[in-house]
Every structure is written in C-alpha cells, then in structure tokens.
Amino acid sequence: MKLIEKYIKIWSAIIAFLLLGACSESFLEPQPLSFFAPENVLVNEEGLQAILDNALSELRYEYCKDQAPFIVFMKYSDVAVDGTTNRTAPWQDLNNQMHPDGNHPDSYTAIPWYWDDSYLIIKDCNTVITRIDQAEFESEDSKNALLGGALFLRAFHYYSKTLGYGDVPLVLEELTQPKVDFYTTTKESIWEKMIKDLEFAVKNVPEANVVNRGQVTRGACKHLLAKYYLLVGRFDDAINIATEVIDGGIHHLNTQRFGVDVDLLPDKDVVWDMFRVDNKSVASNTEGLLMTVDRYGTEGGTGQTATMRNTGPAYGQSGMIKTPDGANGMSDTPGLEYGILEMYGRGQARVRPNGHTQFDVWKFDGVEDTIDYRHRSDNGNWITMDMLVYNSPALKDNNEWYGKNISLYSDDGTLLCFDTIRSWFSWPHYKVWIPDPDEKQPRGGPGDWYIYRLAETYLLRAEAYTWKEQWKKAADDINVVRQRANAQYMYEASDLQSQQIAAVLDERNRELYYEEIRKAELTRISIIYANTGIQCYNGKTYSMDKISEDNFYYDRIMAVSDFYNKGVITRTGNPFTISPHHIFWPIASYAINANTAGVINQNEGYYGTEKNVPPLVYEGD
Questions:
Q1: Which of 78, 151, 154, 165 is nearest to 113 (CA)?
Q2: Structure pTM?
Q3: How far apart are CA 260 and CA 537, in angstroms?
Q4: Separation of first and last alpha carbons in the chain
Q5: Which of 11, 372, 381, 600 is a Cys-bridge partner for 430, taking CB atoms 3.0 to 4.6 Å apart?
Q6: Which residues contact 271 (CB under 8 A, 6 or more apart)?
Q7: Residue 433 gets which letter from DSSP?
Q8: If DSSP codes are grouped into helix, strand and coil, which group holds residue 44?
Q9: Distance between CA atoms of 434 and 377, rounded to whole angstroms?
Q10: Among 92-96, 104-108, 209-213, 246-250, the least confident range
Q11: What's the rounded Cα separation, in Å, for the pair 335 and 509?
Q12: Crossing angle of helices 471-484/454-467, nearest 10°?
C-alpha cells in the first residue's frame, strides 16, 4: 500500500508542479520583488542556459549512482542480468514481476526513472525551447546554439523513452497550468519530429573544441541523429552523418598511451588510459562526443559513480566463497593484508554479465583472445575470479589456503561459491575502477563519464553498412575499433556476410559494455528488422504488426543468454523468465490512472490494453 501511495504522490507532484505547471492561478502569480520568478530569470541567455545546464546535470544521475538508471537497459538485454539475488524484489522473473503494478521502485530497477525523471528533464528542455524567442541574446548564433542544445537533449530522452516504452505522450511545450488529458502519440511520429529537431541542432550547436566539457556538442548531435536515421531506415543518411563526425577533424580515436599512468603503470595500455578519471576530459582526449562532468569536491556532483558497486561481484560476505577445506574464505573488510576491497571495491552485482559477455564474444574459431586490451588479464584490465585470493583474517595462522588464489570447485568437485550468480563472474576492471577517496569500502568515486564516444560512431556506421550489405565497409569500421584495442582477429567481409548484425552487436558488447543503453539498441534493431522485412541472420523475418509477439529482441536474448534461456533459479527462488512482449516495458498504472481526462495506452502483453484508444500521430512542423 505504501508503494502505491508513493507512486501516486510522485506522479501527482509531476503533474501538479514540475511537468504540468502550477495548481492554481494564484500560485502562478509571483510574489512582489521576487527576483527568481520566471519572468525575471528566464529572459536572457544566462537564465535559459542555467535551465539547460540543470537538465544536462541529470546525466550524472542517469549514469553515475548506485543502481544507475541506465543499467536497466543492460539487465533486460543480451549482455547481462540483474545479479542482486539476495532478495526477491528485483525483476528477474519478468513474466511474473514486470507488469503495470509491479514492485519496481528506483532502488530495485530504476525503470520508473525513464518515465518520471525523463519527463522532468523534457520539461526543462521545453522551458528553454518555449521561451527562447522572448529572451535576449548577444547574437542569433548563440540563441540557435542554445536552442539546438535543448532540442538535442529532448531528442536524447525521447530516444530512450520510446525504445523503452514504445508509444508515449509527446510533450513539446512548456505547460503552465494543470493538465491531466495526455494521449499517447505514436513512436514513429515522435521519431520524425526528433529527426527534424536534430537536423536543426547539427547546424547550430558548436563543435567540441568550442564548448566546455559537459555541454552539448555538434558531434553528439550528429551521433544521435545517426541513431534516429538508422531507426527509421535511412541508412545512407546515417552513413553520411556518421562520416561527418569520423572525418570532421574534431574527434579522433585514442590510439597511443596518454595521461596520468603512462609512466606510473607501464604495463597498461591506451584502453586503460581512456577510462582514468584524470584523462577523460583532457584536451588531448578528443574521443568523447558527450560527457557528463563530476569532479571530486565540486558542488552539485553525485560524489560517486558507483561503478564498482554496480558491476562487481559480491565476493566478500561471510560464507559466500569457501576454501577447499570448507572454511569461510573471503572478506571485504578494509585494511586487510590482502586488500581485495581496495583493489576492486565492494561489488553488489547490480548488473551481472552473462556468459556470452564474459566468454563467447572473446573467442574466434574457438580460441580466446587474451591480448585484446579490453579482455587482457595479465595486466589487470580484465579481472577473473581466480585472480582473487583467500583473504579472510581468520585463515591467516591456521589455514594453508590463506593468500592462495580462490577456486570455484574443490578437487572432489564440490562447489565452493554459495551464489555464483551474484558472487562469481569476470568484469572489465579498466572501465569501472574509479578511486573513491571518501569511502573505506569503495563503490566507485566521482569522475567524468562518457555518454557518447567516437568508437560507437564507427560501430553505428558499420551497422548502416551492414543493413546495406556492404560487408567490406562494415568490417573495416569494426576493425578500426578492434585495431585500437589490439584485438587478435580482424573481421573479413565474409564474416559480416555470415554474421551480419550479430557481428556489430558483439563488437558493441566488447567496446561499450557498461556504457551503452543496450536494450534500447536491441529494440531499435528489432524495429528495423520489422519495418524493412530484411531477413535476419537467424533465418527469420519480422513485422511491426506482430512485434509484441515475435521479435528480434526476444530471439537474440534467448539465443545467447545463459539465464533466460536456461531456466536458472536464484537462491531466493526467482527464475529468470522473459517473453517477446517485454520488448516494451509496461506503462505503470499510477501514470495511467492519474491521467484522468485523457488516455495513456498500455503496451500489448500487459493487462489494461482494453482501455487503449488509437494513438495520436504528430503532424506538426
């Protein structure tokens, strides 16, 4: 009951104040001499820039916090699952837990963030867009640059929103009075609107060498536009706009070592350097197209990225990992002789890589690539569990296993890990190890974070070439990324012809794990298959009219996952289940019910669809 009341209060607050305006005309009237009233503040470039900066700052929370919202796009995809198996609340059994009245607060899955908080950010964007013609600017260029930034950020959030939920209400203007008559708009018409907005943005937003880090860049606008072009089947346009970023002379892949650890850690490599906090925003690092900035000690920051907490295994709890002779083997207490906690943080497996991510994508012709910087264990970039040692202080004086590498099985085949889902898996240490100076049990400290990188632009263009069956060009773009990573195997045109989109998805997994919103990209690819009728590498063809019943998203997960397709059950009795209709999340009942004078449609496969009405089609500018 408390959870239901919480959701009603959240949505009511959004409707009454943040998204939909004030509750009464008197509330809208500013107090005399109120300097901070909208008509006094939102009248010039500085005031509107402050609104956009506030909206941009929310990227920190989307990507940089415990249970960061963006990882829900990983949990319900082909690369990972929810690994918090110590309680039944997280969504693992999607067939029984993912429904409109599901127990899904942010502390468990963060999916509501992409409905509630995302609309709040869109509200800020709409404030800038609506008021910009009445505000004073130094020049038309500066006005259009700010407008382009707001249009970009709105399109950024409608991208994740529509590829998470499907058809949603489209809000394009600042609303100044209560409104409870929203109607669902088709995702297709939303995408066309966002494309037009982004086409304006790419002409008016400055390049990255002009704006400060953390601001919207022209490269980011083009990158997102390439995704939208792919989504609607405009493959040539996607190639052209991606090429403008790649060949534009502003952004370059990092191919040589740079930054703080070059002399300090000579055994590391450029991939390690790219993800050091001190290196992400230096002038020589031009790979980032869009960053969120959060420095240690700065006002308004999250204070933590929580990367190690979100991604690492929960290895240190008492009894979780035993020695071969049955003693408790591990501890995550700070200050031990073998300081595993200080090296790897106190992981909670908020997101847990599946076997495909840990093993399959690194094998070529059955041979594991151990020299790829992204999978290299000999220098500590990639960590496997058997690199850890038994470190419990209770073992020190009376157990031969103290200080020795841990094992999953004893010699007689006894399983030594109590919960292999939560506590036994490999992870990309190079990407998620961020010093946490204020925590005795490190979670992942403050630091800048990549939202878009040039490496993904190459992979977007590779995808476009793949849809056009230009196999050699697709292979070449993938290989640019692989060459930088010192990968052992390079793709041939024949590989792309046989593997097709699977090759692109696998390289995205290697390069963008814990960066991309994976489920959104899978859904986007599923929609392309369904709209074009292109035969999938699995031999199937798909259609939009049956997308909630038969789609590539579901087929891909069932083909490569070792959880949803294996009947795995957690220690609390939760099975991992998924169905085709989970390609779109359910619209929460609290959102539908609060919209008393309109209709927000429910997605197919969930209860409540009997109340749906034909969605609106946006036909504006």
A1: 165
A2: 0.93
A3: 44
A4: 44
A5: 381
A6: 373, 374, 381, 430, 484, 485
A7: -
A8: strand
A9: 18
A10: 104-108
A11: 35
A12: 160
pLDDT in tens, 258-293: 999 999 999 999 999 999 999 999 999 999 999 999
Q: Give the model's confidence band at 20: pLDDT under 50 very low, under 70 low, under 90 confident, else very high.
A: very low
With cut-offs at 50, 70 and 90, classify the pLDDT of residue 301.
Answer: low
Reading the block at residue 576, the tokens are 């991992």
Give pLDDT tens digits for 544-599.
Answer: 999 999 999 999 999 999 999 998 999 999 999 999 999 999 999 999 999 999 99
Alpha carbon 212 to chain centroid, angstroms: 23
479-483 long-range contacts, Cβ below 8 Å, gap at least 24? 480/253, 481/253, 481/455, 481/507, 481/511, 482/372, 482/507
Angle, vertex CA 164, rays to CA 161 and CA 167, nearest 5: 70
CA separation, residue 76 to residues 33, 61, 69, 70, 621 (Å): 51, 20, 12, 11, 35
- Nearest residue to 419 via CA among 142, 59, 86: 86
Alpha-carbon distance of 309 to 329, in angstroms, equals 21
Structure tokens at 65: 């916090």
The two three-digit tokens of residue 127, written as one number: 């404030």
Positive/negative CA dihedral, 545, 566, 536, 362: positive
Start-end of H helices in 377-419? none
Among candidate residues 79, 81, 77, the one with its CA nearest the CA of residue 420: 81
Distance CA 90, CA 349 (A): 12
Residue 614 DSSP code = P
| Structural tokens at position 37 | 């009233």
Distance CA 603, CA 609 (A): 7
The tokens for 112 are 């509501």
Closest of 114, 188, 124 to residue 152, by C-alpha:
124
Place of tokens 């959870």: 3
Residues 595 and 180: beta-carbon distance below 8 Å: yes
Between CA 39 and CA 36 the distance in angstroms is: 8
Q: How confident is the model at residue 24 (pLDDT cuts 50, 70, 90)?
A: very low
Give me the domains of the chain, ranges plus CATH numbers.
Answer: 206-301+452-534 (1.25.40.390), 304-445 (no CATH)
Confidence of residue 62 (pLDDT cuts 50, 70, 90): very high
Q: Are 78 and 563 in contact (CB under 8 A)?
A: no
Share of the chain above pLDDT 90, in %: 85
Asked if 199 and 225 touch (Cβ cutoff 8 Å), the reply is yes
